[in-house]
Amino acid sequence: MVRINFTRKVIMENNNIIDIPSLQWYPGHMRKAERLVKENLKLVDVVVELLDARIPMSSANPVLREIVNGKPRLIVLNKADLADETATRAWVKYFAAEGLTAVPVDAVKGRGVKELVQAIAKCAKPKTDKLVHHGAKARAARCMILGIPNVGKSSLINRLSGGSKTKVENRPGITRAKQWIRLGAQLELLDMPGILWPKFEDQNAALHLAFTGAINDNVYDVASVVLLLLDTLRTAYPSDLMERYRLEGELPSGAALLEEIGRKRGCLRAGGKIDYEKAEQIVLTDFRSGRLGRVTLDVLPSIPATENAR
């Protein structure tokens, strides 16, 4: 079931009051996916969790953390080419302070993939060495690929395997069955369906997921989300908005900003009226493709004092 209502009021940094979506999403196939993860966890040495580098905290699934408790785990910050480079470096440091290796990756172009394979092998080594010590034949490291929908799991596996062995489609939830991808003697990957958690305690996280496309656009009010996205970018990355849409002066907020963008991009109906739906799709497409610059939306949590002291 999916339910999204824009009813919760939140005060932004600029003191504007906006509505944050109240969202619950847990279709039947995601319940099945959670069962599959639990059933197959024993087959792997390492759990690889893919996060969206633009929203490392919002795209992290707390249900997955509970399921894989005790299993070696590392983080992939995928779509790093779309994220703020300085912020990504800070997130890598944050995860290191939490005892987790985080590898920034651009699965589409292959950047960081070699480093990822090395990190997986290193993480799995205690398990594979133990097997050999007990008389077993040396084998490849086995890992499970986990993450919420639309973080790029299929693209990453295709890059690792050197070919399109899984269906890649930019729609949340397209990968729905487990798949083993064997990569020679070094690595074996178990791909699992994307899983969203049954309830979003942090509604800002739900909003960030809507911004990036992890939640299907058909299940919420796109118009409201685009206005919230524009206000977020207006506060955090105003110069990128101005450069992309050739805006000048102080940026207006909300619908006025969307209208100005619509006029600049020629989104006009008969009589010179703004085609708001067309303008909304332009903004969403530009943001998700990186045409609005390299953006990181999640605010970095405080790094533990012990790490700050180093």
Characterize this entry briefly:
Belongs to the TRAFAC class YlqF/YawG GTPase family. MTG1 subfamily. Its main location: cytoplasm. By secondary structure, the protein is α/β, with parallel strands linked by helices.
Q: Topology, pairings included?
A:
Blueprint: E1 2-11, E2 17-25, H1 28-40, E3 46-52, H2 62-67, E4 73-78, H3 85-97, E5 102-104, H4 113-133, E6 141-146, H5 153-161, E7 179-183, E8 187-191, H6 203-212, H7 222-236, H8 238-245, H9 254-264, H10 276-289, H11 305-308
Parallel strand pairs: 3-4, 3-6, 4-5, 6-8
Antiparallel strand pairs: 1-2, 7-8
Characterization of this structure:
With about 300 residues, the chain is α/β, with parallel strands linked by helices. The longest helix is centred in the middle third of the chain and has 21 residues. The N terminus and C terminus are likely disordered.
Overall pLDDT:
81
The termini sit apart by 47 Å
Percentage of residues assigned to helices: 40-55%
Fraction in beta strands: 15-25%
Give Rg in angstroms: 21 Å
> H/E element string?
EEHEHEHEHEHEEHHHHHH
Low-pLDDT ranges: 1-18, 166-171, 305-310
Looking at the structure, what is the overall shape?
Answer: elongated
Specify the structural class: alpha/beta
**Can you count the beta strands?**
8
Task: Order the strands across the largest sheet as they lie in space.
Answer: 5-4-3-6-8-7
What's the tally of helices?
11
Major pleated sheet: 6 strands, mixed
